[in-house]
Write a structure and sequence with these properties.
- By secondary structure, this protein is mainly alpha-helical.
- The chain is built from 8 helices and no strands.
- It has helices at 2-24, 28-50, 60-80, 105-108, 112-128, 131-159, 163-169, 177-190.
Length: 191
C-alpha cells in the first residue's frame, strides 16, 4: 500500500511537469487541469500516508505544529506571494512574459516551495514516524527538486521577464545571509 501511495505522489509531480510543458506549448487549458490533478494526487498520497497513524503523542504536537507551519508557508508561497494568476506558467497575453516576483519569499531563494514541502514531510515523519513517511520525505523532496530544476532551466526563462538577472542574484534553493536580509527587508517594506 505504501509503495502505491508513493507512486501516486510521484505521478502527481509528473503531471505538474507535464502541465508546465503544455503551458509552454500554449495549451493552457489542459496545462491548468493537469497541474490541479497533479496537486490532488500528491495530496491524496499524503493523506493516505498519514491515515491510520493513531492519536498524536503529546510530544509529537510540536512536530505537527511545525509541519502545519511548513504547509502554511507552502500555501502562502504558491497562492498569496504571487500576483493573481501568478502561479500560471503562461502570461495573460501571447507574446508577453510574466512579471518577475523577486520580493518576500522569492527574495529568499528562487524556489522556496521546495523548502516548505520538504520541511512538511520531514516534520510529519518526526511526528508520526514510519518508513513510508520517511521515504515520502526523501522521494517527494527529490522529485520536487528535479521539477524546479527543470522549471529553472526551461520553463521560467521562457515565461518570466528578467529571469536571467533574478537567477544571477538569488540562490536556487539554499538561502544565504544576503538573501535572508533581502527577504526580510522586502517583507517589512510591504507592510
Amino acid at each position: 500500500m505504501s509503495l502505491a501511495l508513493l507512486a501516486l505522489g510521484a505521478a502527481g509531480f509528473a503531471l505538474m511537469a507535464l502541465s508546465d510543458w503544455l503551458c509552454v506549448l500554449r495549451r493552457r487549458a489542459w496545462g491548468g487541469r493537469l497541474f490541479t490533478l497533479g496537486c490532488a494526487l500528491l495530496a491524496a498520497a499524503t493523506l493516505g500516508l498519514l491515515a491510520g497513524r493513531g492519536a498524536p503523542r503529546p510530544a509529537a504536537l510540536v512536530w505537527w505544529a511545525l509541519a502545519a507551519a511548513m504547509l502554511g508557508l507552502l500555501a502562502y508561497t504558491l497562492l498569496a506571494a504571487l500576483p493573481a494568476g501568478g502561479s500560471d506558467v503562461l502570461p495573460p497575453q501571447p507574446g508577453q512574459l510574466r512579471p518577475l516576483v523577486d520580493t518576500g519569499v522569492y527574495a529568499l531563494c528562487r524556489h522556496p516551495g521546495v523548502l516548505w514541502l520538504g520541511g512538511f514531510y520531514l516534520f510529519a515523519w518526526c511526528a508520526a514516524g514510519g518508513a513510508a513517511l520517511f521515504a515520502a520525505f526523501w522521494l517527494f523532496t527529490a522529485l520536487d527538486t528535479l521539477y524546479v530544476f527543470w522549471q529553472d532551466r526551461v520553463v521560467f526563462p521562457a515565461s518570466i521577464e528578467h529571469y536571467a538577472e533574478y537567477k544571477a542574484q538569488t540562490p536556487f534553493l539554499l538561502p544565504g545571509a544576503a538573501s535572508v536580509r533581502r527577504c526580510l527587508h522586502t517583507l517589512k517594506r510591504r507592510k
